[in-house]
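# nightly structure sweep
# worker-07 picked up a monomer target from the shared queue
# config: single-sequence mode, recycle default, output format = structure tokens
# input follows
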Amino acid sequence: MFSFGKKEEPELVAVSNQRRPSNVEAMNQQHRKSVSNKGLTGASALTVKQSIFPITLVTILFFLWGFAYGLLDVLNAKFQNSLGITAAKSGGLQGAYFGAYLIGPPTYSGWIVRKFGYRWTFIAGLCIYGVGALMFWPSAVYRSFGGFCGSLFIVGSGLSTLETSANPFIATCGPPRLSELRLEISQSFQAIGSVMAPLLASRVFFKETDPTDLSSVQWTYLGIAAFVFLLAVVFLFAPIPEVTDADMALQAEQCSGLTGYVEKPLKKQYKLFFGVVAQFCYVGAQVGVAAVFIKYAVESAGISDAAGSDRYAIGQGLFAIGRFAAAGLMMIMKPRWVLLAFMTGVMIFICCSMGIKGEGGVAMLSLVLFFESCVFPTIFTLSIRGLGRHTKRGSSWIVASVSGGALFPSLTGLVADHKGYHIAMCVPLVGFTVAFAFPIYLNTLCAQELDGFRETKIGYYDEDGLAIGDIQHEERRPSVVHEEKGISPLEKEVAY
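# output follows
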């Protein structure tokens, strides 16, 4: 288990014996189609200015799967009505979509990103996603629930492949001290996609249609397929710097004076393992809440499905606002503190949603969505901190833990069928409780390591205009072997 994918990772001795390219070289070679994961590219010291365009391009992908995720929840409620299935059975849609995450990232997705680099992983994920979107056409024609589940599995396979590359790319492309902030902002656009999807679904895609008519689903996903195939062509020619595991091994060593980093085998990366468990339970709980939100609103406030969809759109709007708010807080607060604060809010309001009925209960559940906002990206970045040459493999495990979304919705729906939707919130509560233990662990046992990355100046310019951590900087200042082990007080950081 721990050795799977190990042969694509670099050895530390080989990394130290390589010629070190500069970050300028990394930017000049953005158009190459593949790169060895064992080779240095110079991308370990990219500045904000150098990384802003590729990050913006990849952020489009976050919007794309946010839109797909938002549509999934509306389709869930529509299938219950049009096909007359139970809440537990409709959870099979989430099971198919998120079950793909359990298979892809630890196997073929993780192998592609280590073997061929980020560019080809983006392209592969988009192509798989496009095929899955096309499969919705025959599924709608034959009104096959199994066909829809199969199509969603393929879509989930494509999106899990994208996440296997996009999340670590955003986290590692640029100054390491801004890792959490970058991923939080990019994921904010994923939240915007999640807000737009249910609004477009209720106002455009499924407006004034027969509740049993699924033909609009065909055209919706046909348009999505055309868009993602076009996007795959864009990524084929787009300038994307490759950040390899060799680059991350070098960066981790450069930060060791602040973080206390010591190279360890993957099987001893306990923070990563805890992060995987926390992410599995958190995503499962989050998806469980989202899957039944509309039906919860109908039961609690006595409103129609259309009104419940509007309430869900408001909750998703709060989710998007929460991501931007968390990003702002991370500019002045340590990310581990932000994670603890938001998880505390989740625990408080999920408990309130179980006991309060009417519009008040809907408001409590909406506030749960607000505080959920920063949890996934922050768990991700904090879990891969200090992995060094294991960064891509560890990232694939964190993405695989998204498969928790395959388990919790069906359990939540099962309880809802027998006890009602208020009592069913006890299922997400269990998942949130496990996830809540992770920020407590980080703030008590991992504070020095995480704060060290927060303080690093790699990727920032010194007074001479050289990027700290880059080979050109070290050649000019030969007394500084590693940036964090002896910075001159005359050097000042300038974020460009």
